Amino acid sequence: MVRQPYLKKGTWSRDEDQKLIAYIVRYGIWNWNEMPKHAGLQRSGKSSRLRWMNYLRPNIRRGNFTREEEETIIRLQKILGNRWSAIAARLPQRTDNDIKNYWNTRLKKRVISENKNSTAATTSTTETNSSMVENSSDTDSSLMLTNILLDSPVSTIDDLLEPPAYSCFSPSGSNLVAVDDKYSMGTDNNLVSCWETQSYLEQPQMIEGLDWEAVLPNSELSHSHHQQNYVPLDDFWFNPLI
DNA sequence: AATAAGGCCAACCGCATATGT
DNA sequence: GACATATGCGGTTGGCCTTAT
């Protein structure tokens, strides 16, 4: 019987983050199950992937959802339900986990209370709208509703699930690269796609001399609680020369 | 000052789906 | 087509922090 190597769980340390970033920057993403071993991590591929996707990958915005983002989440949740990845695809800098957490801890309560408050007041308006929807097929009506809510035409429900052309900044911070990727490709591939358009081999040098103390999420800077505006890697990805 | 309660969020778990053989 | 493996997704949990008492 093959003994499973010890796999660490729980919060990621700064050192682990550093190892994972350094490895991905150098070798890219190729196999989540194998990568952690080669990166010197005692973590499962699943845990590593999650850490990367939700926290370490470039171009992630954290905390402080704007009013517009809140409205978008509320609208899309109404239309799509708890399809967080589909919702996140419409908010490219947000992770599905972040959106899910934000919804569960704040927006859901707000929506429920607003619905309670507005139920009595909007009965007549709602009746008008619902009769409009009822007169068409289910698909048509939901699309109509979608168009109204999103202020942009959606011809099919697939259009809604299809994210806008994915765009990202190259690690060098010099070029904005638009990548027209299929949602099913996943963000892992998007990342590689973005980097491939750059001089990918330059990446290893880029991280040398990087001030990890300032960059990594577990640094003292980011540890001061509720420093939600601080985006751990933005400085690095957007302007590595800072 | 102590501690209980609640909020928040990172991370885990289990299941579904995609991909490779 | 069947099976194995990898990846993606959403629900849930555990622990830290803040606030109230």
From TrEMBL:
InterPro entries: Homeodomain-like_sf, Myb_dom, Myb_TF_plants, SANT/Myb
The keyword DNA-binding belongs to this UniProt entry's keyword annotation: yes
Residues in Myb-like domain copies: 4-56, 57-107
Keyword Magnesium: no
Species whose genome carries this gene: Gossypium arboreum (Tree cotton)
HTH myb-type domain ranges (all copies): 4-56, 57-111
Name under which the protein is recorded: Uncharacterized protein
Subcellular compartments: Nucleus
Keywords: DNA-binding, Nucleus
Any matching Pfam family: Myb_DNA-binding
Coiled-coil annotated residue ranges, if any: none
CDD domains xrefs: SANT
Alphabetized PANTHER family for the sequence: MYB FAMILY TRANSCRIPTION FACTOR (PTHR10641), TRICHOME DIFFERENTIATION PROTEIN GL1-LIKE (PTHR10641:SF1244)
Compositionally biased residues, Low complexity: 114-136
Primary location: nucleus
Region: Disordered, residue numbers: 114-137
Domain of life per record: Eukaryota
